[in-house]
Amino acid sequence: MPPRKKTSSSRKAPLSEADRSDAAQQTAIAEAHTHSYEANRPVPFFNEPLADFGQDEPRTAMAEALEVVGDMLGEEYPLVIHGKLIETRGKIVSRNPSHKKQIVGTAASATRDHAIQAIESAKRAFKPWSRVEPQLRAEYVEVIASEMRGRRYELAAWQVYECGKPWAEADADVAEAIDFCMYYADQMRRLTAPLNCDVAGEENSYIYRPRGVTVVIAPWNFPLAILTGMTAAAIVTGNTVVMKPAEQSSVIAAKLMQMIRDAGIPDGVVNYLPGVGEEIGPALVSHPDVEIIAFTGSRAVGLQINETAAQTSPEQRSVRRVLAEMGGKNAIIVDDDADLDEAVLGVMHSAFGYSGQKCSACSRAIVLEGIYDRFLERLVDATESFEIGAAENPGCWMGPVIDEESLGRIQAYIAIGQEESRCVLARDVGPLAKEGWFVGPHIFADVDPTSRLAQHEIFGPVLAVIKAKTFDEALEIANSTEYALTGGVYSRSPQRLARARAELQVGNLYLNRGITGALVQRHPFGGFRMSGIGTKAGGRDYLTQFVLPVNVTENTLRRGFAPQEPSDAAAEESAGE
Ligand code: NAD
């Protein structure tokens, strides 16, 4: 199946072998791949650099992008099933969390019938796509990355409007989306390298085959990166996708769909299916033709998906595979010899960055008795100092939370904290509360480690500070939740850091630094216990979850010449004429 050729200056399709001889097309490929290749040898992966908004150029570019995108708000986004744009009766209205009256866009809202159509489309597209050379599939994904690079500030601006992300957070999400594409393309090439174990008279090759239709279900908090990561992993390994974004970030997902189409990826390989999770989720997850469900979101929904997917029906040919990245209740331990300057800033950034709405966010600070009061005082001072505001404002450090429902849930936990613990900071957001979904950072001290505040994932700017008498006790408290996602320790003691390495039950452990901001390849991300099923996103094992390993053994002992096939004989005859 030849990929679509470049039809406009913005469309950069990967090239077939024949196209490669064409010098003009060679230039196009070189443009499309910032990471060029020498003699088929990929340049090693490196992380996309983040924008420094302290510099004039990126600052101006971002301000301009916000203006341009500001003029594009309010558009409509239909479903995309097998390349067809489909309007629906129901709609998802996406609002700006900083200015709740402002409509960012209106996405179609799929029904169960649409969900089934999308799965059928992905099923039809699977056979031809699975036969596209892995190298070519990797190039397609790199072209998506290239599209993202070209639209970097525009994509960040959409996140500012749709998800209330401050500039730097929005930029980091776009950079991560690019990283996922480039890294998984690179990993796919590695996975394709022959793994042979031959002996005299016998050839053994170990190969990977795609599995089939993949349902990707994503959250809103990393609206481009997570959706791109799961989708890119599925398609680069030869699977086809039904892409179900979170309701709150359906517009950004439509932008991704547009880039996938612009990259020339054949119809049906990715289908865009915004919709209400509770309505279409069960139809997607229980469909007999679905092979993989790649989910990122809350523990409650992840477990429900896992349960539904485990049930088999007579029409099913295989057992569905569930990959689920779920929540966390992450802790940072502050030892009594810790560098307080660093610990205070690390905890503050990890707890309140993006209003605490990161799965990696710190929601518990476990502080050794000897340093407790000093740490608390300085943490409160630091948390009082940053700017809270509308996300489009370049000075904004902390913006709103995603929607009214989240705001209500966070406020309910704040009320619990006020009843059960000592509130040492409750920042007022003033008139912002009328304009958008804002809640100020809250810090609760002397929190009981078994209380709801210390055990439930709140997913907002609420930090529980817990006192520990000894380092042993601090470790015990840190490990006392059902989650195991991220965690950290600030300490100057090599022995204690070594104990943390060995004993803290987390998927990503950070020593003497903040616990958010994982980078693809450098910090492969994901947890265990109730935080996740499957291996780490952005890590070397990730793609293997999307493929079936097959071993082929051939007896190669000589046994005379093969009898001539009729087609060979005809070819010989015509060659002799
Ligand atoms: P969510 O679970 O509410 O929603 C996630 C997705 O699931 C959405 O697309 C939603 O529409 C869909 N969904 C809802 N009900 C469904 C159902 N019954 N069947 C199928 N799909 C359904 O989560 P959220 O609010 O979007 O995101 C926040 C959560 O995600 C937090 O718990 C956070 O910790 C977690 N998260 C985890 C990671 C990680 O890597 N571990 C990363 C980001 C977010």
Could you please describe the fold and organization of this structure?
The protein is of the alpha/beta class and 577 residues long. The protein has two domains: 17-326 and 542-550, 3-Layer(aba) Sandwich (Aldehyde Dehydrogenase, Chain A, domain 1), CATH 3.40.605; 330-521, 3-Layer(aba) Sandwich (Aldehyde Dehydrogenase, Chain A, domain 2), CATH 3.40.309. 40% of the residues lie in helices and 20% in strands. It is built from 19 helices and 25 strands. The strands form seven sheets. The protein has a seven-stranded mixed sheet with strand order 17-18-19-16-15-21-22, with helices on both faces. Strand 18 (442-445), helix 16 (452-455) and strand 19 form a beta-alpha-beta unit. Helix 5 (134-150) runs antiparallel to helix 7. The longest helix has 26 residues, at 167-192. The radius of gyration is 26 Å and the shape is globular. The chain starts with 16 loop residues before the first helix and ends with a helix. The model is unreliable at 1-41 (pLDDT under 50). The structure holds nicotinamide-adenine-dinucleotide (NAD). Nicotinamide-adenine-dinucleotide (NAD) binds next to helix 10 and helix 11.
